[in-house]
Amino acid sequence: MHKGLKLDTNSGVCIGNSLIAGHPWRHSGLELGILDYPDSFGQISWHLSQLTGFQWIDHGWGGQTTFQIINRFLRDAIGDTSDVGDGRGSVTLAARPTFAVVEGGANDIYYGFPLSAIEDNLTWMASVCKQNKVRCIVLNCVGEAYGFDSTMIGKIFGLNDWLASGALDTTQAIVVDINSLWNSGTYKGVSPYGNDNLHFSSLVDPDDGAHFTRAGYDSVAHIIFRVSKLAPLSEIVR
């Protein structure tokens, strides 16, 4: 069990696939089966901990679809006791977090799942957060430089357009655009590649064309911090 989370303090959890885990530089403790494995520079959760002054926990798991994420969501994002059969036990959080950063969709698109299913899964996660008074922050979908065809790229555009449309407004979730950063290197900037979701900025690891560099993950955390209007611990009233 992670230590340091108490009911009377603010805390956060980041849940999603390899982008949350910090690939290719790092893996989350959840992935490794070592729940007290420390986060470090180059993981979004680590940078959010530095920015906010309270603890964020990395519950990313590389390669997972939104279907796999929702299977463990109550345990890994809400803090419920639930054994989902993945060998990580029934408790991975010491208490219910104040915030949850949710990310997913690229792996679903790769495996050919329909957009409607991804949208339903993201809506469910955001709704569960609202029901449990966990403030939900949803990241949009980045590009994929290698292995994605035009149909897959079109689905990324479709998912991000849906997120930008206000589809999650009823859940009170905040949607953060990290795709612009993936494409341009400047938040909501214009890429020299025309933001086609295929070519990528200098903040993306050129070896795999899918994950951010360590500096890129730091930039993602800063965008989350700014757009979500997070504040240091001393300024937050729960």
Structure description:
The protein is an alpha/beta fold. Strands 2-1-3-4-5 form a five-stranded parallel β-sheet, sandwiched between helices. 37% of the residues lie in helices and 9% in strands.
The amount of beta strand, in percent, is 5-15%
Helix content: 25-40%
Structure summary, number of beta strands: 5
Major sheet characteristics:
5 strands, parallel
Distance between the termini: 24 Å
Write the H/E string, N to C: EHHHEHEHHEHEHH
* Shape, per Cα inertia axes: globular
Low-confidence stretches: 1-8
The tally of helices reads: 9
The helix-and-strand class reads alpha/beta
Mean pLDDT equals 92
Task: Summarize the structure in short.
This protein is α/β, with parallel strands linked by helices. It has 9 helices and 5 strands; from the N terminus they run βαααβαβααβαβαα.
Mind sketching the topology for me?
Blueprint: E1 12-16, H1 18-21, H2 29-32, H3 44-52, E2 56-60, H4 66-78, E3 99-102, H5 106-110, H6 115-131, E4 135-139, H7 150-164, E5 174-176, H8 179-184, H9 214-227
Parallel strand pairs: 1-2, 1-3, 3-4, 4-5
Label this structure with key terms.
238 residues, alpha/beta, five-stranded parallel sheet, globular, disordered N terminus
